[in-house]
Protein 1
Amino acid sequence: MKLVQTLIQSLAVKSRKLLRFAGVPIDLVPNEHDVLVPICHLRPYNLPDIQKHLLSLNAKDRYLRFGYAANDEHIKSYVRSLNFERDEIYGIFNRDLQILAMAHLTFNIQASGTTTQQMAAEFGVSVHSSSRGRGYGYHLFQRALMHARNANAATILIHALSENAPMLKIARKAGATLERDGAETQALLKVPRGSLRTRIAELFTDQYAQTNYSIKEDVKNFWYFLTQVQEIREGVRAGRHQSAE
Ligand SMILES: CC(C)(COP(=O)(O)OP(=O)(O)OC[C@H]1O[C@@H](n2cnc3c(N)ncnc32)[C@H](O)[C@@H]1OP(=O)(O)O)[C@@H](O)C(=O)NCCC(=O)NCCS
């Protein structure tokens, strides 16, 4: 296990150096352990994991996330409605490839003035209660912002309850303007234009996340294989023991 951990760690350090070379830290700040958080694109095959993550949120978190008291049926219907073509859906996985945190960036075309049209994005996020305070919410927002810049979105909007201190902190830190309307607050961030550098940074960021996911997948499959071998060995041993009696 130590060997696998060391391999993963040294790969992470090397990848970080490569990402720094590509300019990624401009948009993605490492956490307090100096580890770049791998943020993956979620795909339709992740739907069962997305549903499991959202159903694991308690009533208060569901209210904070969706703005209403979402029951299991509401969540299932939200998951069924996810549009992977139009929107960006991101996830952070643990070693067992369970979703610890996810974010949803939706895009809408808005009329601006008489002729031009603007693209406006909206951001929603949830972090599993066991993984809060590690910067995942912040990193997911920064990842979404990176994409919004490259997709030429004009603004990102976040609907949050005024009591939602961590969410408002993330928005404020990114430079959003906060407008409080009683129990609700709207945070609006003007998105700076993307550049060649932010596009390259996004490519490297995705590659890093994909590599990290593949390593976790291989490690998981390897442990599964070892468990199977162990079970077969135990079965054979028990069989020998029985025939010897
Ligand atoms: C909001 C939420 C996504 C934040 O996720 P998180 O990963 O715990 O947040 P982070 O660790 O990135 O912390 C962000 C900031 O909030 C601060 N913070 C964290 N918890 C806090 C709390 N309970 N009170 C005040 N500030 C808090 C952090 O210190 C950090 O500030 P800093 O950068 O100055 O240190 C998470 O609490 C959550 O999933 N809530 C339920 C769903 C929800 O509210 N979604 C948002 C509406 S779309």
Protein 2
Amino acid sequence: MKICGNKPIRRIMIRALLIMALLWGAAGPGWGTGPLPDASGQPYSAPYSTSAVFSKNNAPAGLKQEDRTGAAAAAPAPAAKRAVLAQRSAPSQAPGVSAVPEVKNTALSATESGSAPEQKSPKMVYLTFDDGPSAITPKVLDILREQKIKATFFVLGEQARTRPELINALWEQGHAIGNHTYNHNYSDLYSGFTRFWTQIKQTEEVLREITGSRPQLVRAPGGTYGHFDAAYFSLMKQAGYTVMDWTVDSGDSRRRGVPAADIVRDSLEGLGDSEVILLLHDGGGHEESVKALPEIIRRYKAAGYSFGVLDNSVRQVVFRVSSSAEKLQRAQPPAAWVAANIVPNAALFASGKPLVLEVGLQEARLEAGEYLVEQGRYLVPLRAVIERLGGDVSWDAATRSGRVVWNGRSLTADAQNRRFTATLKAGTGKEGFRKEGAGEVRAADIRLIGSTLWVPLRELLEMSGHPLRQAGVTAEERRVKAL
Ligand SMILES: [Zn+2]
């Protein structure tokens, strides 16, 4: 820090500034005056390198798709390794502007002038790995662990399903997980939005079962360019997802077996940018990417970059809509389909408290958006709750009812007649032998919304032999205890 010199008075001033800065930080979120934490518990703020200039993907809801795609967008030439960005944060730019202007880094100049000696490097690189997990993922994880850095993995549902232990390993090491669709099949994914959507939800469910969390980040196979039209972009946004392309392509999937040296060379094209989202692959056959990785990390570290994971606070990077994608003239999903699928989906990512159910020794957690509160009553999705509590649910389409088998009891939730019916087992009681049959019947507000059966929580618990004992709300969660 050559700017500081070694005058004692200068040091004292700097220390005083640091202490003030620390106090200022402490007085932030903890004292209730700072930004509200987002769903991940982190303060919802942008990296300071860009916060002054770019709004993030929590841009005003009124910002329309055309604002983002119509303005600061230029097509990345197919052969170009560096992507030209379109982003929703520059609606004021006139159409035809070819790229977003570079951000001049104010934090860096402050450091240079000597007023903020402990300012950490504002340059960020986000390593992203697509198409895994595969046999090479553990090697990538080893390198990242050795280097003490985190990355973002855009995984395929198909791969995650067969290798859940690798998803767990990613999760436990603190890497971010994004959704890269189920099978990466372009002809299916880009034949129409509902096909793309099906694969996103399929993968999301696989990941939720493994980690308990839904990824909000999505990367389109092959990138959005040439694939996404305005409807794909707007429906994904409306559903609560953050689509992310990249700023630098390592070139490791240009063909099979691209040599490590070429991957390193192309990956370093981002050096000099204040923010780099680097595309790499950890799918099967990408051994050369693993070989290249330590050198890529070494060079970015040497250039003063910090390594981050993608989340909602990072400036969104997406390519613009290409004319070829618009010309595909794919069928648009009907309004009723959008109302049933897209509109309610955003609630899954709404910040709010989770609902924790404590039933005997079992516990299940529903994230904000996975349950409803109506007039002080909880409505919950039957299958999700029962399965997370260790029971089974089967669906009878003919009677529009769900049959629950849980902790040795069975009951039916009937959406048509809006009632629960307990099933009595065959056996010998005081009155002698009886056959299996209907037991207690109780009217309940059971609803079929889309393909999900929603039931009132209290009645569900009582009818399955777990009467409610306590319900409360803390700063972190809502909690219901039952016997
Ligand atoms: Zn891919």
